[in-house]
Amino acid sequence: MKLYFSPTSPYVRKVMVLLHETDQLQDVELLNVATTPISPAEPLLAKAPLTKVPALERPDGPTLFDSRVICAFLDARGQAGLYQDGARHWDVLTLEALADGILDAALLITYEARMRPEDKQWEGWADAQWDKIERACAALNQRWMAHLSGPLDMGQVAVACALGYVDFRHDARGWRKGNDALAAWYEKFVGRPSMVATQPPA
């Protein structure tokens, strides 16, 4: 299999953490590609029409894209059980969706500052995206700590990767304020070898 990736992509990091946690890293060839909404990577055009990373090329089927699809595939392939069974399965999916919502909002803030011409940037838009992140972090801190502190699952991985990206690109905005339990959980979780190995480059 071939994984099209970028070392700074938080969506890619979710996949990489899963590969480390499930001992499948040796089964995947990593292909570093630079792609943005306004400058799509040529190698991805024939594989993944949205030209986003991560994208997982398989020898026996179409290329998979979207981190949630790839993670579910690799979890099933490795029989890892990171999506859990029964009622907890839906909690894991909800947590992963919430984490990806944090990533979506954080990435939009990044794009607003880095890709939109300065005279067209809208501070109110970026602030509205940050409001989403604050609400999500508050919800995690208030409602999800018991789950986050339980057995490892993909919801936890997704949340940690999301918070890591917010630190990476928007640390000055301070997501930890008022979220002491979440911050303490995160500081412990990022010490996992899989998280250490997948830190984005400085």
UniProtKB/TrEMBL annotation:
The record places domain GST N-terminal at: 1-82
Q: Domain of life of the organism in this record? A: Bacteria
User: Pfam families given for it?
Assistant: GST_C_2, GST_N_2
Which residue positions does the secretion signal occupy? Answer: none
For this protein, the record's InterPro entries field holds: Glutathione-S-Trfase_C_sf (IPR036282), Glutathione_S-Trfase_N (IPR004045), Thioredoxin-like_sf (IPR036249)
Q: What is this protein called?
A: Putative GST-like protein YibF
